[in-house]
Structure formats: C-alpha cells, structure tokens
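hi! just following up on the protien thing from before. the input was this:
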Amino acid sequence: MPAAQHYLAFDLGAESGRIILGTLEDNRLLLDEIHRFPTGHSVVNGTWRWDVVRIADELRAGCKKAAALGKPIASVSCDSWGVDYVWLTDGEPMLTLPYHYRDTRNLGMLKKATALAPAELIFAETGIQFMEINTVYQLLGDVLHRKAIVDIATQFVLIGDYINYLFSGVVAAEESLASTTQIYNPVRQAWSTVLQDKLGIPARVFPKVVPSGTVLGPLTAELGDSPVWEGTKVVASCSHDTGAAVAAVPAEDSKAEDWAYLSSGTWSLLGIESATPIINAESEKYNFTNEQGYGHTTRFLKNIVGLWVVQNCRRAWLEAGHEFSYEELAQMAEAAAPLKSLIHPDSPRFQRSDNMVEAVRDYCRQTGQPVPDDEGATIRCVLESLALLYGKTVTNMQAATGRSLRRLHIVGGGCRNILLNQLTADATGLEVLAGPQEATAVGNILIQATALGHLADRDAQRAVVRNSFLVQRFSPRAELAAAWEAARTRFEALPLLD
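and the predicted 3d structure came back as:
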C-alpha cells in the first residue's frame, strides 16, 4: 500500500449527517470527524421532505473545513439511508424536494401495487422485504398522483447517489442502494423490467446501475482552489449506509456461516452475508430481504424499527422540558425492573406517533401490562422488546437459511448502548461482539481505498478493521435463561396495534 492516504466519507443518517476524514496507513485506519449537522425532515405544506439543498450546503462547508487541514484527499463518497429519491430533469439540479419515507403519501400504495402485480411475483423478482416505504411504492404513488412530475422528469436518483452526482456530475445507481428499491432484480443485477411494465413505471426514469466501489470520475463540485482537491475522485462505494456498515464487520472469515451482523441505529438491520440471493418460501414467509453488498454479495436481512422509538421518546421528554442524554437514559433503564412490560416494536403506531412515550404507555395499557411510570421503565421496556424482536428474527433467519449461528456482530452507533448489547446476547443466546461504532464511515472509506487500488479486497478491508478498532464481547447470562424464555413466550403473543 502507498504512504498515508486520506479519504472523506459523507455519512448521511435520518438524524444527522457527518463528514469523516479517514487516514489509512500501515493497515490501520484513523478517523476524524470534520463536520456534523442535523438532517431531520422538513414539513412543507403538511408533507414530510428532505431538504437536500441544505444538506448539500453543509457537505460543501464540511469539505472546506477538511481542506483547511492541508491533507490531499484521494477520494470522496456518500452513503445514506435507502428508498428515498430525487427527481431530475434536464438542466436542473432537482425537480422538487424529495419526500421522506415516513410521509403519509405512501399509505395504501403497497396494496395498490399488489393489485397490479401479485406479491409472489414482486418477491420472486426482487427478494425484498415488503415495506410501504420502499421506493417502488413511492414511485407508483408518483405515477398515480403526481403524473405531471413523472412526465417531465428524466431520471430519479436515490439520496446517496444524488450527493455523489452533485460532486461528480455523474448520475448512477450504486448497486447496494438500488437493491433497496424493491424494483431491482438481484439475480440479473438489473432493474426489473417485469415490474416496470406491470406497475406502469416508465423505464426511461431508471438510472444506470454500477457495482459497489465504482470510480465515477473526478471531483467537479466547486470547493475552492485548495491543492488538496487535485486529483480527488468521487467513488460510489456502498451508497447504502447498511451496505457500507456490513463491509466493516470485523469477521475473521468472511465466508464462514456461523456469524450474523446487526447494524444498529435508527433502524436495526439484522442479517447474514451470502454469496447469492436467498429467495425461497421461508424468506418470503418471514419477510426477509435480499439487498446487495460489496463484491456482489447478498445482505440477507430484516429491517427492524431499531432505536427510532428510543430517539422519539427522548424527543418527547425534551419537548416537555426534560433533557436526557442517551447515556443517562441507558443508566435509568439499567436501574429499572427487568422484563416487566413489553411492546411489539413493529406495531404501526410506533412508526409515526406524535408522542412516543404515550404510544408506549398506551400499548402496555391496552395489552393489560403494567404501564411504565418513569423514564427508566419506559426505555427498559423498549430495549427489552427490541432485544426479543432480534431473538425472534435470528430464529426465523436460521429457519430460512439452514445456518446455525454462534456470533452476532453489532456495528454502528447503537453498539454504544452497553445495556442493549447485553440484552441482545440474553435474548438471542448468541455471543455478541460490539464494534466498530463508526462502521458505516469505516466501510465507506475502505471501499474507496479498494476502488483506488490501495487495498486488495474484502478480506483486506476487514483485516484493517480488526487492526484499528476495539470490540466488546457480551455473553448470554445462563442464570437469566429461564426468565428470558418466559419473556419470549409473552412477546410472541403480543399484537401489532395501529
């Protein structure tokens, strides 16, 4: 590998965006957060939108901070959440502010889609979990209710790829992000023409698909005349944040079949890495998804609501005048009584609640359980319920794949929650290895390095992760096994409430 190389990861999440400087030297990676800013949704005439103009401005401001350090930047790349997109038209950087996946315009679109194309056909074509937020249902909604926009649009481009376009001038759909749309065929590695025809979504609006780790071209964004940008490339690493995070899982053997991963953040994405898509009756029954990963691998996983409920409980308390850090909430939860009340995190009410604390309490009240009466009891209820949902997902995943799992790698910001890590070990019965916390940025950067020839392959990437970051281990507590088994039985009986 050449001397120290420097890369920028633009890491966009549902709550915040960041620019991370990565320095790779002697098979070790050092990270430096250069810039952080909020990304949350904006409300425009009652609709939820992403203000991508402000996000792009923040990224340019962060790049200027990076340039001030005087380190030559080999490449930049953006990763983001999946499913949402920007409409483009000739000569314009965007047609309209993109919708947020939680906007209510999606409601009913899945039902309309399956009236046009049977659910069995959609799953056979894509292998993707049915979720009303998926791009295909958003596109169908645009075709049905915003036809004027579709008629003048030239292409749609997903959020992470849109940022790469702004910095490179190249429109492309990176494979991992394209695979989240539920209109991409992972076997043919191309957009599903069958679903385009069935749903009436014009093929002309679909951008070309490129593999993870594609060098799009030179940096074209106006970032000033600093010499650090001389020769800088824009790389489509894994534009999907989970794809980037999975690339940073510090597995000893990438091909071993005894480990799973959990990318823990606003969403929890729990799955395995497979050489090929797993599209069978069990994966359809349990609503698993086949998203693409680095090196044409398949991320066979389940999307779970994740720390969204915790984040919005914290927001509700903040609005009521009580400010708690996530660390303080975890400490209060640890002091609360265990396995007292449970919720089903997949309940629709937890997707769009205006007051998440009351939503949790109402769920417990309606299901005849003790109602959490303080912050610690509320967060403990949410975390234990989430851990039990992880356990159920692991059981179903083993049934769908035939694998016998022993270890669970937890990566991403959620792995800072030591209590949740331990609860997850207890609920799944697996050894939990937590770290790295910055998995998405790490994966993004290491894929950039590989694309530029600075690393050899996926195994070299994971060796760098093991050399660079500490991993915490958590084992199931045998003395609590009976209590967790009883909790699993209670959890299985919980209803999904609107």
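The chain has a mean pLDDT of 97.
The chain has two domains: 5-236, 249-435+456-498.
cheers
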